[in-house]
Amino acid sequence: MKKPYRRERAGVFIQQELTLLLRNAVRDPRVADVIITDVELTADRRIARVYVSCYEGEEALHEGLAGLESAKPFLRQRLGQSLHWRFTPELEFRVDNSWQHGERIEAILRDITESEQTDDERGEGADSDAS
Question: ∠ CA 17-22-28 to the nearest 5 degrees?
Answer without folding.
Answer: 155
